[in-house]
Amino acid sequence: MTSKRQALNCMAKNLFSTFTSEEIKKAFSDKLVRNVLEEMPAAVALLQDGEKTPDGKPFYTCTYANKAADSISGEHLQGRHFVEDDGYIYEKLQGVSTSNDGATFIHNWNSGGEKWLHFTASHLKNGVLLTFLDKTWISNSIKVDSSDGSAETIELNQNFIQRMASATPDIIFVMDIESKEIIFATRNIAHELGYDHNQILPMENPFTELVHPEDLPRMLAHVDGMKSAGDGEVREIEYRMISSDGKIRWFEDRNTIFKRNKNGTPIQKMGISHDITDRKAADEKIRLLNESLSDKNRELETANNELKTFTTIASYDYQDILKTLYTNLEFIILKDAKNLSNTGKGNLRKAQTAIQKMKLLTDDIVALSKIQVPETSPSRVDLNEVVSALINELAEKIAEADAKIKIGSLPVILGYPYLLKLHLYHLLDNAIKFRYAGKSPHINISSRVEEVESGAMQHHISVSDDGIGFPQDEAEKIFRMFYKLHKEYKGSGIGLTICRKIAGIHNGEIKAKSEQGKGAVFSTYLEPAD
User: Which of 423, 420, 428 lies closest to 444 in space, CA to CA?
Assistant: First the structure.
C-alpha cells in the first residue's frame, strides 16, 4: 500500500502541470482522478462561479475539496461560499475569473489562528482551480506567522524574498527546532542535490536523511542547542550532505532565532546555507600541498645538513689531503730526481697540476655552498665604492692584461656588501680573462633604470667587454655549475653560477647576451634602495 500511495502522490503532484484547465475540470468527474486527488499531499479545491447574492454580487462556491485542503485550511471547504466580505482572496479569485490568467498570492487564512498560506489559482470555465500546499520541505510553499494583518504586505515581503533568493547562491530557510522540519526555503535543497520527487517522497524528513550520517548527531545537537540562543546571536556549523550521485557536498549554515513561543522559548530558527564544497576541496588541496611542502622542507633540511657536512670536510680534511699529496710529490721530485727518468718527472708534475685543479675546484664548491642569505639585515650599498675597491684588488690582473675599464655612475642598492662585491668580482674577472691574446680588453661598467616584465622599476647594471664572446644559444648554459664553454681558459666554471645565486638572494636576476667573437654583455637587474 505504501508504494501505491507514493505513486499516486507523484501522479497528483504533476497532474496540473500537464493538463489544460478544461481537461482538469473534466477529470474531476472521473473516479480514479478523485482517488488520486484524495491521496495527494497538496491541497486542491474547485470553486464554481456564476451565482449571485440577493444584492447582485457574484460569489464562488467550493464544489470540491480534497482531504489536504480541509486539513491545511482547518475547516470543511466543500460547500463554502467565497463572497465580497472575504476581502483579499475574493479579489484574487475575481481577477483570475475576469482575466483568464492564473495567479499566485499569499493570504491570511483565519481558521483556528493566524495562518499565512501560499496559493496558486488557475482559470477554469465557470470557475477557478485553487491549489495550496501543506508545509513540506520539498515545496516552495510558505506558511508565515506575522503580526502585520496586511496580505499585501506579506505578498510584498514574499516578492522581496524571492528577488533576494535569486540574487544569492545561498539558501535561506526557516526550520522548526523541535521537529527539525524545514517550513520555508527559498530553494529546494533536495533538488539542488539532484534528487527528484520520486526519490524525495519516501523520505520522512529529507533534511535529516540527506545529512551525512557521521555529521547528523552533531547537526541535531546544533539545532537543539539553538533553544539557548539569544536574540541576534548567530551560530555556525559546517556539515556534509549526500547528493543523488553519492558525492559529498559541504555546507556552512549561519543560524539565528526566527520565532519564540509565548514563554520566550525559541521554536523556529532562520538559517543561511552556503555551499562550501569548492572551498573545502581547495582547503584539502592546500593541506596536501602543505604536507608535501613539509616533506620537501624536511628533505631540503637533510640535504642542507649533508651539504654543511660536506663543506666542513671539503674545507678542512679534503684540502689537507690535497695539500699533503702535493707536498709529498714535490718532496719526491726534489729528493729523488736523480733516480727518476724525465718521463717520471713529467708525470709527477702532471699529478701536481691535477691536484692544484682539484684544490681550485674544491675552493669554488666551498665558496658556492657558503653563499646564503646573511642573518644580518640588508643595508644600503653604494656600488661606486664596491667597484672602486675591486679595481684596487684586481690591479695586478688589470695591468697584466692592459685592460681599459670605463666606469659610469652606479646606483645605491639595498643588499649585502660582501655578496654584491663577489658578484661584480666574477663579472669583472671574466671580462679580463676571456680576451683575445695580445689585445687589450675594453670593459664598460654602467647602469640605468628600466621597467622589467613585472612592471617594477629596477637598476640595470651592465658589464660589457670586447672579448671572445660566445654563441647566444649558450647564454643559459654558462650559468650552470661547472659548465666550461672555453676549456682552454683557467677556471672551474662556477663563477657565473655564484653570480646568479647572489642576484637571486637580492630578488634580482642576471642575463647574458653575446655573439661569438664580438664580446659579451652581462646584465644584472636589482631593486633600488628606496
Answer: 428
- Concatenated DSSP letters for 351-416? HHHHHHHHHHHHHHHHHHHT----SSPPEEEEHHHHHHHHHHHTHHHHHHHT-EEEE----EEEE-
In the CATH scheme, what architecture does the domain 1-167 have? 2-Layer Sandwich (3.30)
- pLDDT tens sequence across 381-429: 999 999 999 999 999 999 999 999 999 999 999 999 989 999 999 999 9
CA atoms of 77 and 86, how far apart (whole Å): 14
Question: Which overall architecture, per CATH, does domain 379-526 show?
Answer: 2-Layer Sandwich (3.30)
Upper half-sphere CA count for residue 261 (Cβ side, 13 Å): 7
Alpha carbons 181 and 268: distance in angstroms, whole number:
10
The span from the CA of 136 to the CA of 525, in Å, is 68
Measured between its terminal Cα atoms, the distance across the chain in Å is 84
Q: Where in 168-315 does DSSP place strands (E)?
A: 171-176, 182-185, 235-242, 248-260, 266-275
Q: Which three cell numbers stand for residue 69?
A: 485542503
Q: How far apart are CA 129 and CA 96, in angstroms?
A: 10
User: What's 169-275's CATH class?
Assistant: alpha beta
Q: Alpha-carbon torsion 202, 207, 212, 216, what sign? A: negative
CB atoms within 10 A of CB 54: 5
pLDDT digits (tens, 9 = 90+) for 233-291: 999 999 999 999 999 999 999 999 988 998 999 999 988 899 999 999 999 999 999 99
* Helix or strand (DSSP H, E) at 133: strand 127-133
How many C-beta atoms surround the C-beta of residue 180 within 10 A? 16
Where do the structural domains in the chain lie, given as residue ranges? 1-167, 169-275, 283-369, 379-526
Task: Say yes or no: do domains 1-167 and 169-275 share a fold.
Answer: yes
Q: Are 381 and 416 in contact (CB under 8 A)?
A: yes
Q: What is the pLDDT of residues 152-191, one digit of tens each?
A: 444 445 555 555 556 667 888 889 999 998 887 777 788 8
Q: How far does Cα 403 stand from its chain's mean position?
A: 57
Contact indicator for 443, 428 with CB cutoff of 8 Å: yes
pTM of the model: 0.44
